[in-house]
């Protein structure tokens, strides 16, 4: 049973939300402090709902549980998969994102080297292991072997299909170095029914940075093309500026599962209410 301890309410009488805090400050948001949240005695039938309950292991199970209580999640199961699995979104937008290959079985080093030069970026079709760079950037054969070996036993990675991506040097931003991937000039954008509803700097937990109006226009033009191609009702698109000054897509995600990063949640939800 995935839907325990949920708070289901209608935000400003416009948008149904199911909320459950997951204990991550960049994700959780207390709606009732700032918005009118109506909790009806009787639930409606067949209305759309956005869930903010983290990333469920089994989205299709969650989708059917919501159907049972009268709601359709904003993204259906196909749309969810298209937004959150690289092997689903990549073919639709490959001109905007680093070259990628995915493997049914964990490949050996030779197979990786046939397609990629070092460094190579390695992740699951859905995510990295908490941005741990020793598990996602291989600078040479030895590191690649080590990552492929560790991949099999890592609890976040082993159940995902493995993906290799061309490593594209990104514009760095100044931040303290940790075991995580070094922060670059990256932004997260949220799109609701093809409208931009929020955008902010991605590494907001570590460092402040901002873009110029021209950079913003250029980056959002790329994101808009991607949104039009993947056609997912509520989607987050992450963008980065490369060292040779191009905007690329780092990844797409079902926005129900995305942390706010540098996006103001108040403004985001106000915009969504307005789009409705
Ligand atoms: N192909 C790549 N080349 C260079 N850096 C990358 C590449 N892909 C991702 N990164 C860097 O690694 C970070 C984490 O990668 P990402 O694919 O977003 O993983 P996750 O899904 O876990 O967030 C990105 O924010 C970016 O800084
Ligand atoms: Mg990411």
Give your account of this protein's structure.
This protein has 276 residues and is α+β, with helices and mostly antiparallel strands. It folds into 3 domains: 7-74, no CATH class; 82-86 and 170-275, D-amino Acid Aminotransferase, Chain A, domain 1; 99-166, 2-Layer Sandwich (Dna Ligase, domain 1), CATH 3.30.1490. Helices cover 27% and strands 24% of the residues. The chain contains 7 helices and 13 strands. The strands form 3 sheets. It has a 5-stranded mixed beta sheet. A 4-stranded antiparallel beta sheet has the order 6-9-7-8. The protein is globular, with a radius of gyration of 19 Å. It starts with 6 loop residues before the first strand and ends with a helix. The protein binds adenosine-5'-diphosphate and magnesium ion (MG). Residues 238, 250-251 line the site of magnesium ion (MG).
In short:
It is built from seven helices and 13 strands.
- What characterizes the major β-sheet? 5 strands, mixed
* Percent range for β-strand residues: 15-25%
Query: CATH fold name of the largest domain, please?
Result: D-amino Acid Aminotransferase, Chain A, domain 1
- The overall pLDDT average reads 95
Question: CATH superfamily membership of the largest domain, which one?
Answer: ATP-grasp fold, B domain
CATH class of the largest domain: Alpha Beta
Topology:
Elements: E1 7-11, E2 15-19, E3 37-38, E4 47-52, H1 59-68, E5 71-73, H2 77-84, H3 86-93, E6 100-103, H4 109-115, E7 120-124, E8 137-138, H5 141-153, E9 162-166, E10 186-192, E11 195-201, H6 213-230, E12 234-241, E13 247-254, H7 265-275
Parallel strand pairs: 2-4, 4-5
Antiparallel strand pairs: 1-2, 1-3, 6-9, 7-8, 7-9, 10-11, 10-12, 12-13
Helix pairs in contact: 2-3
Bound molecules: adenosine-5'-diphosphate and magnesium ion.
